[in-house]
Amino acid sequence: MPAPTRTRRTAPPSRAADSAEATLGLHEPGHLFRRAHQHSVSCFNAVFGRAVTPLQYAALRVLQEHPGIDQVTLAAAIALDTSTTAEIAVRLERDGWIVRELGARRQRRLELTAEGQRVIGEMRQSEAVLSDRILQTLDAGERDVLMALMHKLLGQTPG
């Protein structure tokens, strides 16, 4: 008998599932962060669709702000390892959104193409919509507190 296959749930959980999780679920920080990440990705997909992943979006945003940086610097900026960042860069180049040029010391210099500028420009117009959707259950003061606490937790100064 073949092993059962696991299916990945892409739809947000139902109210019954939310209720069961609240009553029976885990309340450890790691689990809650995982659930918050699921919520964030679900909101991202609802606002932007699936043509761009959240990690690709992060890379495009950094390249928009810092054109010509190398892959190692991009990896540090989006908090990923260099091999994963290289894979993302290859996909973005394949999609025609960036160009990668071999620079000094064999580092890959990255730049948005005109199409990449267009894509990220369109997405940026909906950033507020995404933030509102992610944080919809919080009032303005709670949003500020949450953002300050996330920055503190990650050892960052709010930007």
- What is the β-strand count? 2
Structural class by SSE content: mainly alpha
- Cα(first) to Cα(last) distance is 55 Å
Query: Element order, helices and strands?
Result: HHHHHEEHHH
Radius of gyration: 19 Å
> What overall form do the CA principal axes indicate?
globular
Mean pLDDT over the residues: 87
- State the strand order across the main sheet: 1-2
> Share of helix among residues?
55-70%
Runs in which pLDDT lies below 50 for 5 or more consecutive residues are 1-10
Question: What is the number of helices?
Answer: 8
Q: Characterize the largest beta sheet: strand count, sense, and whether it forms a barrel.
A: 2 strands, antiparallel
Beta-strand percent range: 5-15%
How would you characterize this protein structure?
Strands 1-2 form a two-stranded antiparallel sheet. Helix 2 (29-48) runs antiparallel to helix 7 and helix 4 (71-77) packs across helix 5. The longest helix has 20 residues, at 29-48. A hairpin with a 5-residue loop joins strand 1 (98-102) and strand 2 (108-112). Residues 1-10 have low confidence and may be disordered. The protein is mainly α. The chain has helices spanning 15-24, 29-48, 54-65, 71-77, 82-94, 114-124, 127-134, 140-153, and strands at residues 98-102, 108-112. The chain has 8 helices and 2 strands; from the N terminus they run H-H-H-H-H-E-E-H-H-H.
Task: Write a compact overview of the structure shown.
This protein is mainly alpha-helical and about 160 residues long.
Spell out the blueprint of helices and strands.
Layout: H1 15-24, H2 29-48, H3 54-65, H4 71-77, H5 82-94, E1 98-102, E2 108-112, H6 114-124, H7 127-134, H8 140-153
Antiparallel strand pairs: 1-2
Helix pairs in contact: 2-7, 4-5
